[in-house]
Structure formats: C-alpha cells, structure tokens
Amino acid sequence: MKRVVLQLLRRPATATAAGFVLAIGVIAVLAPALAPYDPLTQDYARTLEGPSADHLLGTDYLGRDVLSRLVFGARVAAQASLQTVSIALLIGVPLGLIAGYRSGWWDRVMMRLLDVADAIPGLVLAFAVIAVLGTGLTNAMIAVSIIFSMNFMRLSRALALGERERLYVDAARTSGLTQRNILLRQILPNMAAPLIVQSTIFMGTALLIEAALSFLGLGLETGSASWGGMLSGSTRWQFQQPFLPWPPGLAITLTVLAFNVLGDGVRDVLAGGTRDRTPRRRPRVRARRAAAQPSLAQLPDDDVPLDVRGLSVAFPGEDGDVEVVSEVSIRVRRGEALGLVGESGSGKTMTGRAVLGILPAGGAVTAGSIHVDGAQIVGRDEAALNDVRGSRVAMVFQDPMVALSPVHTIGRQVGQAVRNHAPTLSRADVRRRCVELLEMVRIADPEARLGDYPHQFSGGMAQRIVIALALASNPSVLIADEPTTALDVTTQQEILDMLTDLKQRLGTAIVLITHDLGVVADACDRAAVMYAGQVVEEAAVDDLFAAPRHPYTRALLAAMPTGAGGDDRLPTIPGRVPPMTALAPGCRFAPRCAVRTDACDAAPVELGAGVRCLHAGAAWQAGDAAHERRSQVQ
User: Fold this and answer.
1) 372 within 8 A of 305, measured Cβ to Cβ
2) What are 507-542's pLDDT values in tens digits?
C-alpha cells in the first residue's frame, strides 16, 4: 500500500485529483464548522446578491448564503457517492464472483436475469424505485446502486472467469481451503485493481446522477443544500444573477473530473503502468549533434531548396529501434520535380514526413540532415518548424476530403492559410489572395466558390483546393504524397499538368511520391527509386526509362502496362517488400532478385554512381532472360 501511495504522489495529475477529493471529504466532515452561516437561514432583504465581504459567493433567491450551501452540499455529494458505490459493491461483486467461479447453471441463470434488467433504461428504473420508495437522498441512491450493481456483477464475473483457471486456485483447492476462503481470500484480492478503478469512476457518475435527480426534484427535499438542487434553483434566476449557477456547476464539474483522473491514476499504478510519468522512448540518435541549434545560414548552392543528406528514420520496437528509412540522400533544384517511386512500405512517405518534421508518434530522425531553403529541419522544436512549414515547405496529402475541414468554407480555410504567414494583410487583401490561389489551380469562378464547402466539390476539384492551401505562402518545396491515387484518369492528368505548370511558373521544387512509374514519366524530371527504406537508384527520368541499372527498377518497368496490347501476362516481382525487422543481411532486394549471387549476401551494398547494385550495367543485362523467366512463373 505504501508503494502504491508513493507512486500515486509522483504523478502530478493524480496527486492533484486525490488532494481535491480529500479536500471535499474534509469539507463534508467539517461542514458545520466551516460554513459561515446556516445553509437554511433565509434573508429576504438580501436576495440574489453577488459576491461580497459578508457573503463571499453571494446569496440565492431566498437570501441564503451560497458558500454555506456549497459547503453542506459537499456532505451530500460525499454521502451520495460513497453510499451508492458501497451498496453496488455489496450486491454486484458477490453475485458476479459466484457466477464466474461456479459457472454452470448459476452463471446462466444470473446472466439471463442481468440481461433482462439491462433491457430497462437505467433512469427509468431509478424513477420506478423512487416512485415506490419516495423521494429522498437514500432512496435515490438505492435506485442508482441497483444500476451500478449490474455493472459490478458483469465486471466481477469476467474477472472471476479468468482467475479461476490460474494455478494458485488449484493450489488452494489441493490445500483443502473452503470455497468461501478461495473466493474471498484468494480470488477477490486479485480482482481488486479493476474494481477499485471502476469504483472511483462510479463515484463521479453517482455524483452526476444525484445532481440530475436533485435538479429534477427527485433527490433531496426542496430547500436542502445539494449541488444539484442549487443548480436547479439557480436556473430560474440566472438572468437576475448570472453568477448564481457558477459555484454549484463548477463544484460538480471539478469533483467528477477529479474522480475520473484519480481512477485513471490508480489503474495505471496498480497495473504497473508508467505512461503518465515516463515519456515515450525515442530511437537513439547515432549522429551526435552539437549542443547549439544548427545555423539557418544559406547553403552554398542557393539553387537547391531541398537538400537531404544521409537521412535515417527509426521507430522503437520490441527488440530495439527499427529503422524504416536508411541513409537517404536527395537534392531537388528550383523548378524541378523529383519522383520518389517504389512499392508500398519502401519508406517514401516517411521520407516526405521527415522533411516537414511530422513523423508519427515515436518516430525520430536518427541520422543525417535536412535543409529547406537553408533551414535545418533536424533538431528543431515545434516553434521553429512552424516557421518553416507552409512558408518554405508544404505538403499535399493523398485524400483531399480528409485534408479539408467539412464544417468550414473553402474561403475560410484558404484565407486562414494565407493569414498564418501574413498576419498584417487586410481582409480584402486576404480575399484577393484566395481568389488568386484558386485561379492558379484552375478553379472556375473562384470568387463565387469561396463560400462553398468541401462536399460541394468533386474529388479532383477538392485536390486542387488542397494544392491551393499548400501554395498559400509560396513555399519553395512542395511534397505531393500520392496526389492522384483516388482520381480518375482524366482528372489525374489535369492535376499532373497543373503541377507541371506551377513548377515552371513559380519555380517550385516538387517531390512527387508515387508508386506509379507512369506518373513519374509524365510529371518528373528525375526519379529516385526506393526499396525497403533505401534509395536503390537515382537518375534523370529519360535515362531511367531508357537504361535502368538496378534489377528492382527494371522489374518495376517490366510490370508497367502499356498500350501495345497482347495476350501475355504482365511480369510480376516475386515475393514482397520485407518487413523492416527482417531485412536480408546484404542487398535488401537480393531475396527477390533474378541475378543474385553469393556476393549480394556478403555485406550491405552502398549507393555508388546513382545505383545500389553489384551487378549494375553489363552484369545485369546478362541476367535479363533469367529474370523474365522467373517473373512469368509467378
């Protein structure tokens, strides 16, 4: 118990919640001594007063002191929570324990009865109990206890079903312990953690229900000091005294929140969780960085807005860090489009996300550098990255309907993107810029369409809007992640033509992430082929298509459909991209390669002269026929 308490105190949120709940308990016990006035004393000469020196929280419509009623209301809240949960535990846990342990017809009968009870809405059942027993706090809480006991019964049964199969229960049986001893001293203590958590959550829920019943006049007698009754009485007079609902409303909200936070903390401690106090482990950075932040000075080559060198990205795994991008180096000049191409799982999207510093949770750049317009991305905090995102580098995502907010107009979304990096622009200038952007992406009648919502656009038009958002601040680099995948062929061509026009007109450097070599041929100047997190070949598009040097590139080209027709099946690449936790020791493509030799497995292959292959050139040509035969077998 001491260990649990110490661990709870080490969690700031849990310790604060526990302190708040403890304070409510102390106030409830000492209410007569702490309250400055009798909560039932009426003073018609001082009704609906605001906070003052005499009445710190003012008075209600009968002149009663709000602070005193709030203090005595804590006693009602504590009684309601404890009474409800205690009764529910005494009813639900034993029934669930017996049903789960004994099973058989005990279990079947109890669960069928529980199913019947669950079919009746909880509040309807509470109203029925109150109608029979009458109003009052105890009667109201008995009604709520019946509802909670059903939940405790289900939870206890599920826990007992699991515990009864454990070896310590068999050992207790062989020791001659009675069934009662096994249930109460062996199984029940092992069920304590989830029951405690559920109890703390139900205490907050009981408080809410008591407040709701008092609000409806079904709880305490009229005039009694309860938070729900205070809130109910204040609604009629809130226009004359707007402050009146705030004290009971905040008391209910904060107390329920404290119970829930306390329950979460107890759950994590009893389960051995450490998420609240131990940050997610990030992969270890191989390349040591200087203590000072990298300089934002311009790179020597001002014509290269995107310069990625030796980039590696990793995620934490069960057996250590898992590297999903390995030593990727790409450079894109102004007015140039680079295609990142490869099968799914090759690391293309992670490379693009690393450039913007938006890796998924747990991911980290473990080596290399990324410069955008001379600004170093790696190692920057969020504030510094926000100065780069949008203004220097932007991204177009695959699904436009996910990238656009469905509840805001296009004009508002594009306008916000413009205003983020130009806050001094007037409203008229922002609107004028929005119209220019929509014209740039070839939206007809842009002035009228600013008031439209995303659902009023087709998929292709919505993708144009996403591109307009990305171009709002004239970025030097535009990363387009599969921008044409969800579009029909005609619309795909229109989007590609538009990107090409923007590249030429604005001088934007474009990184086009795709698995379609046809898109690369149509819209890119250079291409980098990725496989299993590595760049295996990089070349000008014309050279890549005319004379591919890597076996993987050649296999991708062979698998492309053409307009020549014919009855032959398209060649396929045997196997699949390996998981990053099970890579080949040498060349990563070797298990699927038709020209594989023992040398391919000896050691990792380095990227040299734009290709990562020991058999590039003439040696690869000799294995062409073997590759074709192997592909056709698949």
Assistant:
1) yes
2) 889 999 988 888 888 889 999 999 999 999 999 999
Query: How many Cβ atoms sit within 10 Å of the Cβ of residue 354?
Result: 25
Token pair recorded at residue 543: 């050279």
CA distances from 434 to 402, 459, 557 (A): 21, 20, 41
CB-based contacts of 243, cutoff 8 Å, min separation 6? 50, 51, 57, 58
Helices (H), 164-245: 167-174, 179-181, 188-190, 192-215, 227-234
> Which domains does the chain carry?
29-251 (1.10.3720.10), 393-516 (3.40.50.300), 547-633 (no CATH)
Strand 477-481: give its sheet, edge to edge: 393-396, 477-481, 509-514, 337-341, 526-531, 534-540
What phi and psi values does residue 94 have, to the nearest 5 degrees?
Answer: -60, -40
Q: Which amino acid is at 310?
A: G
pTM assigned to the model: 0.56
Residue type, position 236, single letter: R
* Segment 73-126, tens digit of pLDDT: 888 888 888 888 999 999 999 988 888 888 777 788 888 877 777 776 666 776
Q: How far apart are CA 627 and CA 53, in angstroms?
A: 91
